[in-house]
Amino acid sequence: MAVSTSSYYSLVITETKTLLCPVPECTKRLTPGTRLCEDHSAAILQGGKNITNIGVIKLPTSKTNEFVTLFPLSKSSERYNSLVTSIMNDWKKQNVTDLRIETIAEIYPSPSQVKTFNEYKAMILSMRNEGDDDVDNIYNHNKVMALYHGTHQHCGPLLTTENGQLQSNPQILCGSSDCGVCGVILNGFDPNKIGHNERGETFQRLGKGFYFAPHPSKAHYYSRGAQKCHSNDPTRKTQVLLRCLVAIGKPYHENIVQQKKTAPPEGYDSVYGAVGTCRTRGHGSLNWPEYAVYDPRAAIAVDYIVYSYTSTSEF
């Protein structure tokens, strides 16, 4: 069954609702539940054929005739600048020098990914007696949160000009399931990848789950394999982060390390590690907060972020 435009773009964070459509020269405002205006949402669903002045990237998923669309934002758009401000303000850990945002591309997941996420979200909201008819309520009360995820990238990164045009060939995204960034974008979070990372670390404080952070500086540590030399400036390195919508539901506040945990306690949907908790010999306690979910349906990538810096203390 076809996915309607409204449900396809119901993946929304409330910050977008008063912004203009980010397509260059479009003056229409977004409405709650959308990330583009109605006309351009419909155009994206048709493969971007009716959109001009932007580089739309379509990538095939593992499902037949399904695609994920990446839409690089113009650096003059309201949403681009809103996200840049948010990223810079939330970058609390002083682990990079001269941080700069290079590219933000909105990720429009495949219909199957959207359907899976929305069904899971509706299920946990129903279990917690939360309605799904009020977008503001869901996001303002942290039932669904926009959080950062760091992972390796064998390809990329995509770099854009001021108006969102690509500086490099879209095929630079390899689409391989062995590439952390491409794997998540195209096919979602894979339980078989839990515990496998470019840092070679197996320590998982909250157990065998998918980890997300409210601070991009925390996720930076885990995107080691995404580090590349900047194609236009040899003094800078680039890395990639994914901004994801995560169905947190009712989080359990963990106080001790639980490396063997494979699910939240009964009655909860996720696990939260607060600063100063989960102390262990050799690793100390948490310096920055983090969330873990254990069901791959609980998270979906919605923004591809390329950032650069001149040095970092963590590699």
UniProtKB/TrEMBL annotation:
MF (Gene Ontology): NAD+ poly-ADP-ribosyltransferase activity
Annotated PARP catalytic domain residues: 171-274
Any single Pfam family the record assigns to this protein: PARP
UniProt superkingdom: Eukaryota
InterPro entries: Poly(ADP-ribose)pol_cat_dom
Name this polypeptide is given: 2932_t:CDS:1
Lineage start: Eukaryota, Fungi, Fungi incertae sedis, Mucoromycota, Glomeromycotina
